Amino acid sequence: MATSSTGRVVYSVRAMKFGWMTLGPDGTKLYVALVDSDGIAIIDLTTYAVDWYYVGTHDGVPTCPSDVAWAAGQLWFGW
Question: What is the rounded CA–CA span in Å between residue 29 and residue 60?
Answer without folding.
Answer: 29
